[in-house]
């Protein structure tokens, strides 16, 4: 059960972690092996920013459990291929029961693939773009606790990224969506103090070679 007022939860294995996975096996695996681990692969970054857009109004667990269907529907989130999708593809995907059938979000993914292609042409990679916004030490909280997570669905950095992406024509990239992306892709380490994964993620971030 959740440790009172800390946001930590003990698993059946006796390990203390962030509370939000609820000890559900698939969510627990995501917490332990993906969330907060730094990512420089453009396809994974594109996938995540799009899936965070699909999450809007829903839970991440819903999207996580549909992720393989999303990957199949969007050609593994190869944005070079998705950029070539047509209106007919959007209509086809609206009939795909395995994904979230929201016309605006599907069309947004196609649009964002085209914007991603432009960004790579300009910046060299999506990774180089996103990691250029990594918060400095002064922009990070002194302590990551339950109060921090609940009080900060957005940050000044996620707001800057959101505004810049929107200027570039991206959609479904509001500050909250962008901050969830930052948390998941390792631009910040928001595992709560006391979570067994926090120190592991810090080591991963320390060893991570930032793209340029």
From TrEMBL:
Molecular function, one GO term: metal ion binding
UniProtKB keywords: Metal-binding, Zinc
Coiled coil (residue ranges): none
Binding site for Zn(2+): 18, 31, 191, 195
Segments passing through the bilayer: none
InterPro entries documented for this protein: Adenine_glyco, DNA-3mA_glycosylase, DNA_glycosylase
One Pfam assignment: Adenine_glyco
A biological process term (GO) from this entry: base-excision repair
Signal peptide: none
Superkingdom as given in the UniProt entry: Bacteria
PANTHER family xrefs: DNA-3-METHYLADENINE GLYCOSYLASE 1, DNA-3-METHYLADENINE GLYCOSYLASE I
Name this protein carries in UniProt: DNA-3-methyladenine glycosylase I
